[in-house]
Specification:
827 residues; mainly alpha; Clc chloride channel; 3-stranded mixed β-sheet; 31 helices; 55% helix; ATP binding; transmembrane helix; chloride
Length: 827
């Protein structure tokens, strides 16, 4: 009989749709899949409705899991069909700029895992498939670590070469940086290791002059020209090919990990363009870093590899577990700090971080760090450029200047956040935002013109920080180490005593003071432009400059006044008492903590970054102090401030809500507003529902028994209603505008000549989250935060009163904090 092949075909098609790849969104560039008409199948099913019910039970259990088992036997009679017997494209997906339903994603993953576990007992092949599914997470982590580490190494090498290209070129091999070029030279000496005949400045190459005013002006001009060229290429590529490649990326990553959908933000084009433009903007000399954008790059890698496995591509909740681990890998390669990367992901960016994600984050960070170490981009057999070795312990009396540096970091963080947010808001609300290319060119020109005369701002920020962190040894040639030596000194090289500062040190301190003012001002205007821009390195540079100045001051104070009571016990004449590089390291941690409000992960990153395990206590003291001082002026870090500036629906787990308001004060509709738009369980037609969808922009509709009783039945998502009606018109005969839509198990009684009713019970959420109208908002906020809800319904004795969405919660919190509630633009 014809029905047997048909049933097998239906089962195969059901399995194909439930396990296959999700179709593209209707508004994407791909054409939507149109399913063939199934009218002949419906006629055969009417003749064999007993077989039809059995098939519905099997398919219902397989496709929709335990939450939908009760919907498996839905066909009330043989002449009616629930067209959702076969899944249709895009069911269970989300629209752009909307929040995912964490509870539904968790339930779907539980159902998927239960089905795989049950099927693994059927055969050896199914058991092998279950093992492959279990190991797919580790495979994704391995791939993320390998690609993120490789990209970070390539970026580091390219930045090193292109930064030096602004000043000169290597004649023996143009792709060598200045340092690499002189490494290969036999004429270079240790004292003048940065000078070799193979490396020539542009003035030497073009006019055969290395000294004099004309050579200086030519090098100055070409430095500015190269910087403008790099910046123009970067902003043009971002503007034309990948607008989402601009900025740091961490505010958006935090928002995406909290459940928000921003399609294309982690796409392949964004990955490619951000990698290329990151090299260009860092090489241009702008006051920005590559560390924050590397987190975005790593998350793009995570999104790409998760799309290759249906376990992650079909479940937005599981995808975010991968992205959390990818963020850890990004910090791991940015700073060479795998443990700090895991803690950064946990403390700063992740919203949902189960123990399993912790292990996988650690593995991804390990693989990424190992890959970067294999590439060895810095040529020092270490993961980082800032590795230091101090030979002097710190003393208790030094905690006072360390805490002062923490206060400075907190004040700098507050100043930067307020000024940068004010400037970014002005950019968004004035004509300035219409000319992003001109803004980038102008800031680059100003930066290059002011930076070149000062040797501490001319070099790359990473090299500046490295020099500020370094201790002055006997072989150092830096101006910062121009001390007056005692000719009778016979101490070992690693134990040089404190010495009086020479003219070079005082000159360096003036140049550093000017560099500090310049970095503070220019970073405010640079962060937030339409180019990739990280904030970690500029913040650390500000703190390192301030710390080095303070360190030299304390060192000279201890040398000249060693008989003071604070120095008497630990700083004897001829002793190595104070390490200025340590103050630079502490200042860098303080300023970075003041801007980002990081604490634990910051300290771990800093000691992994520098190898200064012995100096954890000074780092902790500075980090905690900077956070306390900055929190006294405002609780938001720079990333949270940019999230609120962009209006993203981010419900921070660190926010506290202490106001005594109730759910009835926040729910919609309020007094004087139109009644809540609802669906009835069995009395609305297809035309009524389509009209309601066209006239409103709500994400979903409560389903009630009737508009008179308003007894709650469930909740139907807007997107799934649209898809269900659209597919029903294509696949089911007799569905017209006058067809009654019903959400009950049994069909309603309709006149004999009426069109067939349409059954949509399977898209109905029969257990929506509800609260009573007298539930405290403190509890409601906690529920939204911990369960990741999109909305909850407000009832009284089972009767629907209203609805509270995530946007309503955020706007209420903003209103209670005396902020503009209309700044929350998305749900």
């Amino acid at each position: 009989m014809a029905i047997q092949p048909l049933l097998k075909s239906l089962q195969r098609r059901s399995l194909h749709h439930s396990l296959g790849e999700r179709s593209p969104l209707p508004n994407s560039s791909h054409s939507e899949e149109v399913l063939p008409n199934c009218s002949h199948q419906m006629k055969e099913r009417r003749d064999r409705f007993a077989w039809d019910n059995i098939l519905n039970l099997v398919e219902g259990a397989f496709l929709f899991g335990t939450n939908m088992v009760n919907a498996g036997n839905m066909n009330g009679s043989g002449n009616l069909m629930d067209f959702l017997d076969e899944p249709f494209p895009d069911v269970g997906t989300y629209e752009d700029f909307h929040t995912i339903d964490w509870l539904r994603e968790k339930s779907r993953d539980t159902d998927r895992h239960r089905k795989i576990t049950n099927k693994s007992k059927e055969s050896i092949w199914e058991f092998i498939k279950s093992l492959l599914d279990a190991w797919s997470g580790w495979v994704v982590m391995l791939l993320i670590g390998l690609l993120a580490g490789t990209l970070a190494g390539v970026i580091d090498l390219a930045v090193d070469w292109m930064t030096d290209l602004k000043e000169g070129v290597c004649l023996s091999a143009f792709w060598y940086s200045h340092e690499q070029c002189c490494w290969t030279s036999n004429e270079a000496t240790f004292e003048d290791r940065d000078k070799c005949p193979q490396w020539q400045k542009w003035s030497e190459l073009l006019v055969n002059k290395s000294e004099g005013a004309s050579a200086y002006i030519l090098n100055y001009f070409l430095y500015i020209l190269w910087a403008l060229l790099f910046a123009f290429l970067a902003v043009s590529l971002v503007r034309v090919f990948a607008p989402y490649a601009c900025g740091s990326g961490i505010p958006e990553i935090k928002t995406i990990l909290s459940g928000f959908i921003i399609r294309g933000y982690l796409g392949k084009w964004t990955l490619l363009i951000k990698t290329v433009t990151l090299v260009l903007v860092v090489s241009s000399g702008l006051s920005l870093g590559k560390e924050g954008p590397l987190v975005h790059v790593a998350c793009c890698c995570g999104n790409f590899f998760s799309s290759l496995f249906s376990k992650y591509s079909k479940n937005e909740g599981k995808r975010r577990e991968v992205l959390s681990a990818a963020a850890a890998a990004g910090v791991s390669v940015a700073f060479g700090a795998p443990i700090g990367g895991v803690l950064f992901s946990l403390e700063e960016v992740s919203y949902y971080f189960p123990l399993k994600t912790l292990w996988r984050s650690f593995f991804a960070a390990l693989v990424a760090a190992f890959t970067l170490r294999s590439i060895n981009p810095f040529g020092n057999s270490r993961l980082v450029l800032f590795y230091v070795e101090y030979h002097t312990p710190w003393y208790m009396a030094e905690l006072f200047p360390f805490i002062l540096l923490g206060v400075f970091g907190g004040l700098w963080g507050t100043l930067f956040i307020r000024c940068n947010i004010a400037w970014c808001r002005r950019r968004k609300t004035t004509r300035l935002g219409k000319y992003p290319v001109l803004e980038v060119i102008a800031v680059t020109a100003i930066t290059a013109i002011i930076a070149y005369p000062n040797p501490y701002t001319r070099r790359s920020t990473s090299e500046l920080i490295s020099e500020l962190f370094n201790d002055c040894g006997a072989l150092e040639s830096s101006q910062l180490c121009d001390y007056i030596n005692d000719p009778n000194m016979t101490r070992p090289v690693d134990d040089i005593p404190d010495r009086p500062a020479g003219i070079g040190v005082y000159m360096a301190m003036w140049q550093l003071a000017l560099a500090l003012v310049f970095k503070i001002i220019i970073t405010i205007f640079t962060f937030g432009m339409k180019i990739p821009s990280g904030l970690f390195i500029p913040s650390m540079a500000v703190g390192a400059i301030a710390g080095r100045i303070v360190g030299i001051g304390v060192e000279q104070l201890a040398y000249h006044h060693h008989d003071w009571i604070i120095f008497r016990n630990w700083c004897r004449p001829g002793a190595d008492c104070v390490t200025p590089g340590l103050y630079a390291m502490v200042g860098a941690a303080a300023c970075l903590g003041g801007v980002t409000r990081m604490t634990v992960s910051l300290v771990v990153i800093m000691f992994e970054l520098t190898g200064g395990l012995e100096y954890i206590v000074p780092l902790m003291a500075a980090a905690v102090t900077s956070k306390w001082v900055a929190d006294a002026f405002g609780k938001e870090g720079i990333y949270e401030a940019h999230i609120h500036l962009n209006g993203y629906p981010f419900l921070d787990v660190k926010d506290e809500f202490t106001h005594r308001t109730l759910a009835t004060d926040v729910m919609r509709p309020r007094r004087g507003e139109a009644p809540l738009s609802v669906l009835t369980q069995d009395s609305m037609t297809v035309e009524d529902v389509e009209t309601l969808i066209k006239e409103t922009d709500y994400n979903g509709f409560p389903v009630v028994v009737s508009k008179d009783s308003e007894r709650l039945i469930g909740f139907a998502q807007r997107r799934e209603l649209i898809l269900a009606i659209k597919n029903a018109r294509q696949r089911q005969d007799g569905v017209v505008s006058n067809s009654v839509i019903y959400f009950t198990e049994e069909p309603p009684e309709v006149p004999a000549n009426s069109p067939h009713p349409l059954k949509l019970r399977r898209i109905l959420n029969l257990s929506p989250f509800t609260v009573t109208d007298h539930t405290p908002m403190e509890t409601v906020v906690d529920i939204f935060r911990k369960l990741g809800l999109r909305q909850c319904l407000v009832t009284r004795s089972g009767r629907l009163l209203g609805i509270i969405t995530k946007k309503d919660v955020l706007r209420h919190m903003a209103q209670m904090a005396n902020q503009d509630p209309e700044s929350i633009m998305f749900n």
